[in-house]
What does this fold into?
Amino acid sequence: MQDASIWVEPVGSVLVARLRGMPTAEMLLECEQRVLELARDTQQIRVLYDALELAAPKMELVLLQQRLDTARKATLGAVSLRTAILVPDTRIAYLARIAFGHVGEDNYRVFYNDLGAAMKWLEDSGK
It folds into this structure.
């Protein structure tokens, strides 16, 4: 597996966070910081996490992402980010649901290898 890397940039009206390799706590913290900064700077509320090349994280990292997501909600106040998570398999999908599922199905959705459907869902949100 390649070294862990992240890439976070606005693409159209969506913030894209691409995560690759074996995740670390530092990687998740940096990704979250970049997403928050861009959400504030661009006023965009749609986020796509591309985890197609992400190795399955340890449970400690899944729970860290859950805490980061809770903190994000507190930081952004009433604004809730609409989040699509693009995954390669059921294992990472399950972990993504644990990490993001506490915010409610209206605000996040997991997509299996279907970038088009993920982007359509984000764009059709009407927000």
Notes: The chain has one domain: 5-123. Residues 5-123 form a domain with the Transcription Regulator spoIIAA fold (CATH 3.30.750.24). The CA atoms of residues 26 and 81 lie 22 Å apart.
